[in-house]
Design brief:
Blueprint lengths: L1 E9 L2 H30 L7 H10 L15 H23 L20 E6 L5 E2 L5 E3 L3 E6 L10 E6 L5 E8 L11 E6 L3 E5 L4 E3 L3 H17 L6 H35 L2 E5 L3 H4 L5 H7 L1 H14 L3 E5 L25 E3 L5 E3 H18 L27
Parallel strand pairs: 8-11, 11-12
Antiparallel strand pairs: 1-5, 1-7, 2-6, 3-4, 4-5, 6-7, 8-9, 9-10, 13-14
Length: 399
């Protein structure tokens, strides 16, 4: 499986200028490719092939006076920008024809030099390498200092240089990682994700929600006020924008670190992990949107999934329509309703449940049942004794 390893870069002032040129050239090639294909579509012209597009926006463009500066950067950077434009169009066409799953995609948009995130990519053809001193050699940029937090497990196939909104530079290496199975623990865990507690495990473990964004709101509010008072287009406004972006980056980094530590701990301690497939996009449109985004459930679940594959564990998602909170884990009775403010409830069988712990236990049981089901479909809940107040069936008029 392929993984990404990111490291912080410390380019010199001259290297920052060279990187800015590379970002700009890649952006221009991408925009030229998008504009040409949109023009051909608007005027009912034949579809421009990839070879024709490369010849037009790179090879021939370098010979024109208004695009001569494209020769100042690595040709691989330009080819990769063109490849990104081609991939964007293919994804759009696949989405329109229904071949691509997920939400519908729109046509590629033009990239702006004011975008907060700029990227360029080097492949093996560019002959990038890590020199013995620990620096990263990039063509037409030089030897860039890298903050190595860990060793690369294998030779990378490509590296993407990223400049984020806070002005930080990163090198993201794509590495072919081999699976490294851990010893079998023989334990299984169902995980219920929430807002009161970030995660509740079926064994009773409760992980408090750090609420990184909520804790940083006071400082962010002050920085945002300072930004709003700066004159548009001024250098002070640029400095204030970077301060706001740096604070947001600090929050995102803390959240990511928390997700990594917790997901690694869960994967190491459990052989099989079951998680409910939450509708995060739907929840993000409710009044709980800020808290949902602050929790970052999707990122955490993706980490569990790839780490389970990397370390030889089993990962399984439970259907989002499974009533994990309303189902009694003792007798199997499903409650009619369960508002969010109800954190503890008592079933008709006399069992008192903690809402989150009961959901985690039900997720574990449902995951086990689905894995044992030969057809792979949902398994009906167990038969239970009808309650005295349960509505019965009425006989037909013909009976």
């Amino acid at each position: 499986m392929r993984l990404r390893y990111s490291y912080r870069l410390d380019p010199t002032p001259a290297q920052r200028i060279a990187l800015a040129k590379a970002f700009g050239c890649a952006r221009v090639v991408f925009n030229d490719a998008v504009a040409l294909r949109k023009h051909a579509h608007t005027h009912a012209l034949p579809f421009i092939t990839d070879a024709e597009l490369s010849r037009s926006v790179i090879t021939e463009a370098k010979k024109r006076p208004d695009r001569a500066w494209l020769a100042e950067v690595s040709a691989v950077v330009l080819q990769q920008a063109l490849a990104d434009a081609t991939t964007a169009f293919r994804n759009f066409f696949s989405s329109v024809t229904g071949k691509r799953r997920g939400p519908k995609l729109g046509p590629p948009r033009l990239r702006s030099r004011k975008d907060n995130r700029q990227t360029i990519r080097f492949t093996r053809n560019a002959r990038f390498k890590v020199v013995p001193g620990g620096k990263l050699t990039l063509p037409k940029i030089g030897d860039v200092a890298v903050r190595w937090s860990r060793e690369l497990p294998a030779t990378p196939s490509s590296v993407t240089v990223i400049k984020d909104a806070a002005g930080r530079y990163f090198a993201s290496f794509v590495v072919e990682a081999t699976e490294n199975p851990l010893p079998d623990t023989g334990t299984e865990a169902g995980i219920d994700l929430g807002l009161g507690h970030f995660a509740v495990l079926s064994d009773g473990t409760k992980v408090s929600s750090p609420r990184f964004l909520r804790r940083a709101e006071k400082k962010l509010r002050k920085l945002q006020r300072g930004l709003s008072r700066k004159e548009k287009g001024s250098k002070n406004r640029t400095k204030a924008r970077i301060r706001v972006a740096a604070q947001h980056a600090k929050v995102a980094d803390a959240r990511r670190e928390f997700h990594h530590q917790l997901s690694t701990k869960i994967i190491r301690e459990n052989q099989t992990v079951y998680v409910e497939d939450l509708a995060v996009k739907g929840l993000a449109r409710t009044r709980l949107a800020k808290s949902v985004h602050d929790a970052g459930w999707s990122s955490f679940v993706r980490m569990l999934e790839y780490k389970a594959k990397l370390y030889g564990r089993t990962f399984h998602r439970i259907s989002r329509w499974f009533p994990s909170s309303k189902l009694c884990s003792a007798c199997g009775t499903i409650q009619q309703s369960m508002p969010l403010n109800v954190r503890q409830w008592t079933c008709a069988c006399g069992t008192t449940h903690d809402r989150d712990l009961n959901a985690a236990i039900n997720i574990l049981a449902a995951g086990r049942a689905e894995r044992l089901n030969a057809c792979g479909g949902p398994v009906r809940p167990p038969l239970v004794v009808a309650q005295p107040d349960e509505a019965g069936s009425h006989g037909s008029a013909a009976a």
